[in-house]
Design a protein that fits this description.
single chain; Rossmann fold; NAD(P)-bd_dom_sf; alpha/beta
């Protein structure tokens, strides 16, 4: 098993889904996990309990600029150092083309704030912190939609995830000399609440007919890859994007 002993890992959106699986996997590997959540305090507390006594809760509404800006430093102040940052929190707003301009603007701003602006702010603080301590690792949870696009109603989601991929690649290119590594995991459909909303809207065929494997990806299928990237055993893959989508790219 991978050993993350001595590392402090901040996982955003850790109260459920992929973030929960990554937080719990990192904790089992020995890391102290900073469990970020937006609104689901009870669920986040359960995750923190599972992650052990070294886990602490950090609430921040990522649609709020000031709250987002304060999050990383709050974690660093609590633990003394941060070794890894997992940018998992995300939203997918249904934005039909016939929505009003005001509604479209609100949902676009919200999507970009959570999926791209919040990661950018967190990375800004992380880069300064990592430079001072001699290095660190960042894992961005993007989406296959960043590369193949999405439906018209979710094109803002695809655009935000494409931006996250570019952010990770820029950090990998620009901060490598400071021993900072950045990676992207691009899931396809994964059994989460967000995916279920999409399935409820478009029907199960949109998932089933698009997979090369027989089973829908689970959050637990993605978590070991995140732990590997955080471990230091894959540092020369910095800048890479790892597709984990049950073969839907090649099906």
């Amino acid at each position: 098993m991978l050993d993350l002993s001595g590392q402090t890992i901040l996982v955003t959106g850790a109260s459920r889904g992929i973030g929960k699986a990554i937080a719990e996997t990192c904790a089992r590997a020995g890391a102290a996990v900073a469990v970020h959540y937006g609104h689901s305090a009870d669920a986040a507390l359960e995750v923190a309990d599972t992650c052990g006594s070294d886990a602490h809760l950090f609430q921040a509404d990522l649609t709020d600029l000031d709250a987002t800006d304060a999050l990383f430093n709050a974690v660093a102040d609590t633990y003394g150092r941060v070794d890894g940052l997992v940018l998992n929190a995300g939203v997918a707003r249904h934005m039909p083309l016939d929505a009003t301009t005001d509604d479209w603007h609100t949902d676009w701003q919200n999507t970009m704030q959570v999926n791209l602006r919040a990661p950018e702010l967190l990375c800004r603080h992380a880069l300064r912190h990592f430079r001072n301590q001699g290095g660190g690792r960042i894992v961005g949870i993007a989406s296959r939609a960043a590369f193949r696009g999405d439906t018209l109603d979710y094109m803002s989601y695809a655009a935000s995830k494409a931006g996250l991929v570019a952010l990770m690649r820029s950090i990998a290119r620009g901060a490598g000399s400071d021993s900072v590594k950045a990676f992207t995991i691009a899931p396809g459909f994964t059994r989460t609440d967000m995916a279920q909303d999409f399935i409820d809207e478009y029907g199960p065929g949109i998932v089933r007919d698009d997979l090369a494997l027989n089973d829908l990806t689970e959050p637990a299928d993605l978590a070991p890859m995140a732990a590997l990237l955080l471990s230091g055993h894959a540092d020369h893959a910095t800048g890479c994007t790892i597709d984990m989508n049950a073969g839907s790219y090649v099906h």
